[in-house]
Amino acid sequence: MLTKKQIRFCLDEMKKMFPNAQCELTHENSFELVIAVLLSAQCTDNLVNKVTSTLFQKYKTPEDYLAVPLEELQEDIKSIGLYRNKAKNIRKLCSMLIEDYGGVVPQSKTELMKLAGVGRKTANVVASVAFGEPAIAVDTHVERVAKRLGICRWKDSVTEVEETLMRKVPKEEWSDTHHRMIFFGRYHCKARNPNCPECPLLELCREGKKRNEKNKNR
């Protein structure tokens, strides 16, 4: 496991690599962000943005999503994985927003997680990006990077990864660290082909050192 000093080094290097890391889901308000993050589960941000470029022109409010048949909404998002289930969740979420929150997206993580299709990760993203609340949303990239580097244990659950990062990263850096770790995992420390030879964190990275040794012995 990395020491506090080593984690600080990692955070600083990621900042140098991706100083402008931010949410890549296109949105204009908190409602659009909730829909986009819901759609992004097991799907790339690029694909979501392609779909929402027309979706958000057609649907502006929670009422708009409820004004069409479920089948029509499914057709509008059918290029996205799990589109049938996501369409149902979008409609349920919109009903809850209207009935329980006056059509306005709630700001607290606790209230966000009550919405259909909104789990811990989605709530953290929305709270952080839309409302400026410090949060670390653990997606596949954040989890992979944290475990490869040794900030967390391999066996840690997603919730345990989040809790560990919250303990080891200063609270005022939570949101920026979340975005930088996503960029680091998405563009550098990729799942299948991580760029270990050119990584500034190689000397600290248990996974990178293992991979380098394997390549040397081939």
Structural overview:
This protein has 218 residues and is mainly α. The protein has a single domain (1-218), classed as Endonuclease III, domain 1 (Orthogonal Bundle), CATH 1.10.340. Helix content is 60%, strand content 0%. The protein has 12 helices and no strands. It has helices spanning 4-17, 30-39, 45-58, 62-66, 70-76, 83-101, 109-112, 120-131, 140-149, 158-168, 174-187, 206-216. Helix 9 (140-149) crosses helix 11. The longest helix has 19 residues, at 83-101. The chain is elongated and about 60 Å long.
Considering the protein shown, what is the CATH homologous superfamily? Answer: Hypothetical protein, domain 2
Secondary structure: helix percent:
55-70%
What percentage of amino acids are in beta strands? under 5%
Q: Could you report the average pLDDT, rounded to the nearest whole number?
A: 94
CATH topology: Endonuclease III, domain 1
Number of strands: 0
Contiguous low-pLDDT stretches (5 residues minimum) are none
What's the CATH first level? Mainly Alpha
Calculate the terminal CA-CA distance, rounded to whole Å.
Answer: 28 Å
Oligomer: single chain
The 3D shape can be described as elongated
The helix tally amounts to 12
Tell me the radius of gyration. 19 Å
Order of helices and strands: HHHHHHHHHHHH
Structural class: mainly alpha
What's the main sheet like? Answer: none
What is the number of domains?
1
